[in-house]
Description:
Helices cover 40% and strands 12% of the residues. By secondary structure, the protein is of the alpha/beta class.
Amino acid sequence: MVFDKLLAYEKNTNITSTFHFYSDLKKKKFKNIFFDPGYKINSKNLKKILSDISLNNHEIGLHSSFDSWNNIKDLREQKKALQDACGISISSVRQHWLRFSWNFTWLCQQSVGLKLDTTLMFNDRPGFRNSSSLLWNPWNFSKKKAYNIQAMPSILMDSHIYDYLDLNDHERKNLMYHFIKECKIVSGEAAVLWHPHTLTKDYGWSGSFLKFLRMINK
C-alpha cells in the first residue's frame, strides 16, 4: 500500500509530515467529480490509514473541497467529519489551490478554528509565492488587523518538477536542493507538497521524493 511505503520512507529519514485529507461527505455535484477526490473519509480503510499516520507522530490536516473557499458551513462540516474519522483535533488546512480568495478564504478558515494554512504557492512553478520564506499572520484589510490564522507558503510541488518543468533527474535534485538551501540561509519556514499517489509505479516519482527527504534530513 502506498501509505505504508510513504510512512516507511519518512521513518527511515526521521521526518514527520502533515497529511491533508479531503473529508466532504455530501453528494457530489457534476463538476466536483472532476475537482475533488472520490474517497470517503469515514471508510474503514481510511480510518486505518489515519490511525497509522497518527501513531507514527505525523500531523493530520484538512484538504478542503473545491467549493469551500468562501463557505464557513462547508468548512465546519468537513473539519468535523475529519475529526470524527481520526479522533483528534484538526488545526491545519490546505485549500484547493484553484479556489482561493484573499478576502474570504482565511476568514472562513479562521471562523471554524483552523490555525495554519499552506495553500499559497505557484500552480505551475516552484518559488516563493509571497517573496519570502515566512510563517505569518495575513492582514485582514476590512478589519484593519491581522487574522488569527497563520499562513505558510508552499514553495515546491511534485508536479512542478515533473510535469511543468522539463528536467532530468540531476536537474530535479539540484532544484530541490536550491530551495532547501534558500530556506536554510534565512532560517525560513516553508511547505512542500507531494501527493502520495505519485509514489506508485504508474507515476514513478518516488526517487525524487526519497532524495528530497534525505536532503531535508541532512
